[in-house]
Amino acid sequence: MSTETLVAIIVACALVLILIGVGVWMKTRRRRLQSRFGPEYDRTVEESGGRRSAERELRDRERRHDSLEIRELPPEAREQYARDWGRIQERFVDQPQTAVADADSLVTRVMRDRGYPTDGYRQQLQDLSVEHGRTLEHYRSAHDVHIRSGAGSATTEELRGAMVHYRALFDELLVAPGDRQRTEEP
Length: 186
What we know:
Layout: H1 3-37, H2 39-48, H3 51-67, H4 75-92, H5 96-114, H6 121-132, H7 136-150, H8 156-174, H9 177-184
């Protein structure tokens, strides 16, 4: 076998190994994003028109999130927010629209106190998706009902559902990160 043939075989094998390595790396990165973002991964793929652009956007969200100063709430603040939530739930019986609006405001205050920017709804979704991708659909549903409620077009049952949806994100935002990990373990 000539030296040229041997070099060609080695180069071809090296290229195959590099392609396999790149494929494994991309698949690992995709799985990590899918695991971290949960249902938000599929939603982003659908909205952005493809995996590559979706994954680029999700990595951008991670970078932005890493630059934020997300902090744990002190125990006193968590207790106060829990009491505030209880009062909002009590108000639901007599004033469901007001209670939903108050729940939206309370969730926004908790986000702000945790260090999330709260300037725009779309940005809130993107920032929350990094750590709360599994409950983000709850927030979307609740916010949609809240908007329709302002226009007078939400039923009492929809308002009740919005409270349940807000509660899902509220609970996640309120709990300390270490406590969340303990409750997620089997």
